[in-house]
Write a structure and sequence with these properties.
The chain has 20 helices and 23 strands. The strands form four sheets. Strands 12, 13, 14, 15, 16, 17 and 18 form a seven-stranded mixed sheet that branches. With about 650 residues, the chain is an alpha/beta fold. The protein is elongated and about 150 Å long. The longest helix is centred in the middle third of the chain and has 47 residues. A hairpin with a 5-residue loop joins strand 9 and strand 10.
Length: about 650
Amino acid sequence: MAEPLRVLLVEDSADDALLLEREIRRGGFDLSLTRVENESQFLSAMSQAWDVVVSDYVLPRFTALGVLRHLRHLHFDIPTIVVSGTVTESELVDAMKAGAHDYVQKQNLARLVVAIRRELGEAAGRRRRREAENALREAQERFRFVVENTADVVYRLRFPDMVYDYLSPGIERLTGYGPREINGVGLNGLIVSVTDTAGRPVAIEKLEWAHRIEQFGEFSADYQVRTKSGELRWLADHSFPWRDGHGRLLGAVGTLVDVTVRKDLEAQLTQAQKMEAVGRLAGGVAHDFNNLTTAILGYSELMLRRLGPDDPLRRHVAEVTRAAERAAALTRQLLAFSRKQLLQPKVLDVAEVLEHSRGLLERLIGEDVELVTRGEPGVGRVRADPVQLDQVILNLAVNARDAMPRGGRLVLEASNADLDEDYAHEHVTVRPGRYVMLAVSDTGHGMDKETQQRIFEPFFTTKEMGKGTGLGLSTVYGIVQQSGGYVWVYSEVGRGTTFKIYLPRVEDEADRPPPVAEPPAARAITSGLVLLVEDEASVRELLRELLETAGYSVLEASRPGEALRIAQARAEPIQLLITDVVMPEMTGPELARRLAEMRPGLRMLFLSGYTEGVVVDKGLLGEGAHFLQKPFTGEVLEAKVREVLDAAARAAP
């Protein structure tokens, strides 16, 4: 198919126009030609699109120079060929300077088609270059818009002088310093600490060397920088080599991204995981320690029973008992921290809790501390153990009092709080929802960041030796966590501390204490055959002696398998199974189920160093099971055994 060609011919001679048209058609074009003779006709024709303009050099009232001037003014890049039979060489040079692409003498029109084809090709090349340049310009403008409006920083660093020859405006938003100020002090001048992306510290003096990334396919590190306002922020640097066309290293190009929120969330997650691990350890230690204190308290009680009232050894045994009771109290605090404390939750009106706490604290904090309570009108209700919640407030108040040795102000306040997705995003362990916030604030000496990161750890204390166990705040943490809540600390050195506790808000009506009922008359059963299963030898021997002293006959076993063999071998009825919960071979409840199949009606009492709440949560006890938490005294054991056997007697037909 013939190539279409749109030609605007500027020519006043009809004969010459016919010759030109014939010559162009001989080139094999599908020609569409329009002839104009003057300037006004030419300007009217410029409203259409043309592939080529062919113009005679001189017309009566118009010239080729005028054509070129109009095309230049209108910013049209149309191949323009000047044709003339009488023009001088200097005039043709003037036309070429004015923008003509070629000229053809009328005596040699055979060149016209060649010139047209060449100029069409060159025009297409110019058009492609323009399109590429426009596309590049648009891409650069889009890139500049993104770079200059993003919160991240794009930079180019020149070696070896380590000067940033480009820093995007985000650097000022992140650090408060402009590009010139950064180059004045160097980014190193702002850096507080440096780690690699795995969190391992990188020596600051190696930073310049590390930036010479010719030794690496890239360089990544996290910087903690101090901004112009004094705030500490974390920046993640990711850079690549910048080379010239010959492969020589000129510097680095890269990005700086603010990762402060990510670092904060990672720190929160690490802290939560550490607290969880320490909690599991504390729970295990408390379980084992309860076995020891059970033996100490039990044998001390047996000794006191056998010593006369005037025996000088009674005083020593009594001191052993008191020491064991203090140890048991510490163990209870460890259990609270590890969220294994026995809780008896009730629906509480927080306004009433606030009023009740004020009465407790007024007697505790002293006259040099001003106590202020603030309750938001309509503050909601929570489900918590009232005794343990009192303990939380008491522990926080004691800490606040100790932080204000010269007096100050203690503020206890409560309000409703809705924690949304944004808050939960910034506090990794929090679930969004409706809460009641309890806050305890003081005007004491405050804490630095390092102390705040450790205050909930068991046995961590900033007090001098002998002034605290380091378990007060651990207990707060455990009770709040076990109640489904969260506790956060906000503190600045010299400006005081605020602890905020968030407990889930409930819609139920507050529980009221039930009326006091007369206890049923006890039948005081103090005889019968007991099967005792306990893998800890010292505890087993103690329990056997306590039970025998109370008048019971005892069959003892150190393992569940041994207990099953005893039950199979003995024909007489066994009234009661007393078993530890956690043992080798099988758990106490599993043993109880096996024995119940062999001896229907067998009563059961479970013992554990863990709390009943934990044992029940794990599904170890069935409905109606009886439980006794270690440590306990002989009197408590005897009373519990009588309670279990009396209940069985009352249930018998």
